[in-house]
Amino acid sequence: MENNNIPEEAFDWYDSYAHGGMDRRTFMKKLTGLVALGYSMSVLTSALLPNYALAEQVSFNDPEIKASYQNFPSALGHGEGRGYLVVPNDATKKLPVVLVIHENRGLNPYVKDVARRLAKAGFIAFAPDALQPLGGYPGNDDEGRAMQKTLDREKIQHDFVAAAKFIKSHKLSNGKLGAVGFCFGGYMVNYLAAIDSNLIDAGVPFYGTPAAKALRKNIKAPLMVQLGELDKRVNATWPEYEADLKAANVDYVMHSYTGAKHGFHNDSTGRFDKENAELAWTRTIDFFKAKLA
Questions:
Q1: Which domain holds residue 30?
Q2: How many angstroms separate the first and last alpha carbons of the chain?
Q3: Long-range contacts made by residues 90-93, C-beta under 8 angstroms, separation at least 24?
Q4: Residues 6+ positions from 31 with CB-CB distance below 8 Å
Q5: Among 61, 84, 196, 238, which residue's Cβ finds the most Cβ atoms within 10 Å?
Q6: Across-strand partners of 124?
Q7: What residues contact 180, with CB distance under 8 A and at least 6 apart?
Q8: Largest distance between two CA atoms of the chain
Q9: Would 3 be classed as within a structural domain?
């Protein structure tokens, strides 16, 4: 998707809108201001808003994988959760497991595709939907974002802890659990590593903020932190987080991707950066293969 001619501030407005710093009316008003300067509204919205037809890299009926939905108990969360489970179709031995955590809008098609990509790479992948208590992802991000805001954040966190414990004990699991997440999901990866030192064995947070400072001393799992160079909001949290990781002797690496925006891995929007996304994903797969064997 060509977006080189769109002003950088438009992507900043979308980031603010997507994370609660700006309502939709204000966001659209700002875009209308760009239209007055000669930009096409259709070009702007197609670049900034997701088109999930673009995001499918692995078909849901790919013969090499088997996908299903599984419920799991979450006593401290919303009682019961539900997630998208994808397993290599020829799995005959114990395999490493990866928890896949969505952005702040529920289990959308892009994140389900990420789970399928992991299964194609030889992992058991499980992608919970934080919106399950409200009936699940509603089919569009705006509504999903509004729904997730209504849920108790602490209960959501308990749901993902429960999901991690559930999938780590899968009958085909080798007992090693990785976690990868995007935006809110990146925060959740950092949180899972910090809330229980023994919960995950490796984490890859994509442009996610860190867990509360008091928790960071608990982190033992190796981390691969993926950041976009232009993501000012998340990058501002990195220096302090890195200092705390060093203080806790965490095995970590941080990659900053030149020219990449927040959300650069999401191939359903104009923020997608193909070259950087592919490099980040290759690094992610290699990291999990090394740490979860």
A1: 8-48
A2: 37
A3: 90/64, 91/124, 91/172, 93/172
A4: 10, 13, 41, 44, 45, 48
A5: 84
A6: 97
A7: 98, 99, 100, 101, 114, 118, 189, 203, 204, 205, 206, 284, 288
A8: 60
A9: no
Q: Which residue reads 């359903």 in tokens?
A: 268
Are residues 142 and 262 part of one domain? yes
Provide the residue type at 168 as one letter.
Answer: K
Q: Are residues 177 and 226 in the same domain?
A: yes
Q: What is the mean pLDDT of the chain?
A: 92
Task: Flag whether 1 is in a domain.
Answer: no
The count of domains in the chain is 2
The one-letter amino acid at 173:
S
Please state the three-class secondary structure of 59-108 as a single string. Answer: CCCCCCEEEEEEEEEECCCCEEEEEEEEEECCCCCCEEEEEEECCCCCCC
Range 44-49 average pLDDT: 68
* Residues ≥6 apart with Cβ < 8 Å to 231: 15, 207, 260, 261, 262
Q: Quick check: 269 pLDDT over 90? A: no
Our measurement of the distance from residue 241's CA atom to the centroid of its chain's CA atoms, rounded to an integer in Å, reads: 19
Q: CB-based contacts of 206: which residues, under 8 Å, 6+ apart?
A: 180, 181, 182, 183, 185, 186, 226, 265, 280
**Per-residue pLDDT tens digits for 95-115:** 999 999 999 999 999 999 999
- Cβ neighbour number for residue 208 with a 10 Å cutoff: 27
- Phi/psi-derived region of residue 269, left when phi > 0, alpha when psi is between -120 and 50, beta in every other case: beta
- Residues 66 and 51: their CA atoms lie apart, in Å, by 25
229 and 94 belong to one structural domain = yes
pTM: 0.87
pLDDT exceeds cutoff 50 at 5: yes
Crossing angle for the helix pair 8-18 and 41-48, to the nearest 10 degrees: 50
Q: Which residue has the higher pLDDT, 22 or 54?
A: 22
Amino acid at 281: W
217 and 166, same domain (yes or no): yes
The CATH number covering residue 106 comes to 3.40.50.1820
